[in-house]
Amino acid sequence: MTTIDTVVVPFHSIAPERIGMRPPGFRLPAETRVGTVTLQVADLDRSLAFYRDVIGFRELRRTEEAGRRAVFLGAQGEDRVLLALREKPGVQPVPKGGRLGIYHFAVLLPSRGDLGRFVRHAAQRGAHIGAADHLYSEATYLVDPDGITIEVYSDRPSSEWVITPEGEVITASEPFDYEGVIRDGGAEPYRGLPSGTRIGHMHFYVGDIAKAAAFYHHALGFDNMSWSFPGAAAAWKGRMLFVSAGGYHHHVGLNTWAVGSPVATEGDAKLVTWELVLPDQSSADAAAESLRRAGADVTLSSDGHRARDPWGITVRITTQQSV
Prior knowledge:
Blueprint: E1 9-10, E2 33-41, H1 44-55, E3 58-65, E4 68-74, E5 83-87, E6 101-108, H2 112-124, E7 130-133, E8 137-143, E9 149-155, E10 162-163, H3 178-185, E11 198-205, H4 209-219, E12 223-226, E13 240-244, E14 252-255, E15 270-277, H5 281-293, E16 297-301, E17 304-308, E18 314-318
Parallel strand pairs: 2-5, 6-9, 11-14, 15-18
Antiparallel strand pairs: 1-10, 2-15, 3-4, 4-5, 6-11, 7-8, 8-9, 12-13, 13-14, 16-17, 17-18
């Protein structure tokens, strides 16, 4: 499956406490997950057509406040909001080199068959689909009308993941098995994002990996899962960090591929907020306090704690995903 030239062992051959690097202080609970992603877009109708007709989101509701329109989207048969689109006419699309902020958000499908049905559907819609095999997952990539990238992927069973003897999860960018994935999709047509779909992870352009680690690992409490990328492309080494809770391959990816670009502003299409959903209020409060002790910008509002990383990327720490 892989041409990685490094020593690997099965993921489950290592005791859970030896996988990854734990933070020095507060550690996020294993039940932590990513919740709603909120984007700022230039044209709500244009974006809705893409996310509904190509990706397969279901429209849940619309709002309008002070002339600003928004739409809230989820999977088929569910009321949970996965994606919120907020319109701000005139914002600039993401340039080719990116802006510090969102690199992509990732929609996790329940199965490989679901991914196969999605790939066939998106191709029939004329969408340009990039794709890669990351060893623990099979991933496709599309770009929305504002230049924001979306990953749509399915995970392999963790029994198929590989890891170094030192506990670093192995990833790569291998050729995608289009034929096998589409075959597993069968003849059934794609009917939109199936029930059980969720936001699997976020990936950000940041200005400095050490500063990113200080925020996401040392302060927020994620485990480091992939940090040296043994056997991966040279461009990854020292320029990426993957972190997670509960032994997942990554809930947040961080890279410095857009260093030199400005931070996304209110005049840009961009990520507004993303949610980090914790199992209880005590853990949410502890995460916020850990960030405050580290000097992070943290505020408390009616919908949870909001924290900004060094590049203004805003996470809402909550116990209840938006509905």
